[in-house]
Fold each of these.
Amino acid sequence: MTAYLAKRLAIAAITLALASVVVFAVLEIVPGDPARVMLGMNASEAQVEQLRQQMGLDGGPVQRYLHWAGNLLSLDFGRSYTYSVPVIDLVTERLAVSLPLALIALALSTAIAIPVGLYAASRRGKTGDVISMGAAQLGVAVPNFWFALLLVYLFAVWLRWLPAGGFPGWGAGIWPALKALMLPALALALPQAAILARVTRSALVDVLSEDYIRTARAKGMPWRRVLWGHALRNALIPVVTIMGLQFAFLLAGTIIIENVFYLPGLGRLIFQAITQRDLIVVESVVMLLVATVIAVNLIVDLSYALVDPRLRHRT
């Protein structure tokens, strides 16, 4: 188990280092002068040069990368030149929206997908299976912003149960804040639930053909217990993998949904920073999201050893 953990940690560290180089290089080749864009075309060359020095754009690429990476290692994300506040303050404020949104969406996705996948696998080839997987295929094909608009019309405009957008803040109370997150969370969860349901069904179909499942049934074990206690547990590795990837996507890939519902989250922050050419915010937030994705994947890898005891003894 120790060798397994060390190997996964080494892979995560190398991946993070390579990702930092890619993120920095991509932003380096973006055309245009960020200082000129932020000051406007009427600014003098002296003003532009002064801002370039303040933003750390006057050194060479290698020098700037080493300085930026060193600051990241010490958890110094720099200071936003658009908002005039430390980037860590912006991240903390926006994370209070994006993290609960991702967690709620993942919980909804799992609550929908696991029962649907179990139902479809237990009725393989029958009408229930065809209908369930047809609905899942539709969920995969339809983009989440279309679900968002449909949910707004249904629950906000017609039924008037939930707000159509905006976020009152956690200071307004837990229930008003959760109500504001329910529609965007559901819009994010439905396509992910469709993917997870198909993966769950596929994994369960393979497991249900194993000999130990037939043995359990031959001994008179109830079908529900076979499904939940034996089949699902042994089909969890691909399911957990997809859940980990989905959480990373839900946290890092909510730009469209946060703009549709006007939520002040990390996705909207990245969109605004790109528009305003606030490179220090873009670099720092993107690297934070990359680190989160790598950390989630590491946790998923380690969870394999809990799900499958055979991995604990591998090197």
Note: The chain has two domains: 2-73, 93-306.
Amino acid sequence: MISLKGFIKRFLSDPVAIGAGVVLLILVLMAVLAPFLAPQNPYDLMQLDIMNSEMPPSWKPGGDDRFLLGTDAQGRGVLSTIMYGTGISLIIGIGAVIVQGILGVTLGLIAGYRGGWVDAFLMRLADIQMSLSTLMIAIIVLAIFSATFDANTYADYAIFMLILIIGVAEWPKFARTVRSSVLGERNKEYVDAARVIGLPPRKIMWKHILPNTLTPVLVISTIQVAEAIMTEAALSFLGLGMPVDRPSLGSLIRSGFEFIFSGSWWITFYPALVLVALILALNLLGDWLRDVFNPKLRRGDD
């Protein structure tokens, strides 16, 4: 395991990692502090004025200093919607990965430690799950959900449904990663010693083996957050994600797409730019973490 000092040293010596970390930190702070920093609350109807709709960025002719990045068709400031929308996208991405992690780590740990028919059954189940497209599953479930309930009910439970669907659909990636790590750990001396002193399998798995399998889980979690955010954005663009009145980055892109050819390009362009920056930063950090924790790529940083 790389030391904290070695970890920080590698981070500070990698310009790409620093750049990705700074971008991610800025976006996270922007989302967390949105209620305090945003010029406007896009959820507060009292702050909206339809007469301000489709105003260009403030430096363009016809722009207003109150709306730095312009406004959308409902009169909401694009900057404010981006700040709030980034928070929703991050909540969905992180929430989905938590669901994936709970399911995947638990099943992967059981499969790797138990072996035999339990391992075979769980891995075949994972194979079946991975053969199905996450987007296809989400489209079917969300289409049924939106057709069954009214728009207000759908809006109330949209975040929960997206987190649950994306999380359940992607658990095999965690399960396979943890299983492969457990297979390499279960026959080591510290596990044999725990068996000899009479510890039950549950304690051996969770208290002894699991801590030694968390490094690859950390790496895959970063990348999976990016994938979950991309999936949510795709669903929102198709009209099956977050509703327009509770925008994520994906629903913001969708809400402005129909106005691109009328000249109001900023409604879609800036949310899309932030989405690309967020996904890129997460993927670059995930790749960097993978390289750092790969023993074959370390050079005396410990």
Note: The radius of gyration is 23 Å.
